[in-house]
Amino acid sequence: MKPGMLVAVLAAAAACVSAAEGPRDAAWVEQRAREWQPTAREKRWESVGWAKDLRDALGLAKKHNRPVFLFTLDGRMNVGRC
After folding, report:
1. Cα distance between the two ends of the chain
2. CA angle 46, 48, 51 (to 5 degrees)
3. Contact call for residues 33 and 7 (beta carbons, < 8 A)
4. What is the rounded CA–CA span in Å between residue 33 and residue 49?
């Protein structure tokens, strides 16, 4: 989710919160959006080297003496079927 969209969602949610819980201004929303951003550890998967095809992956694996992880997809990931 893009940070701007996250801010909009948080702002809408904040509008629904009762006044008894305190004010929910733009600064609060911005702070919450920053807090919800993934940490460097959570984004570690982004450092995985991706190859454009299987031939390139096998060549890189042989060159660096590393295994190849082959991910295939049949369907839609958002429904949990891979």
Report:
1. 22
2. 120
3. yes
4. 29
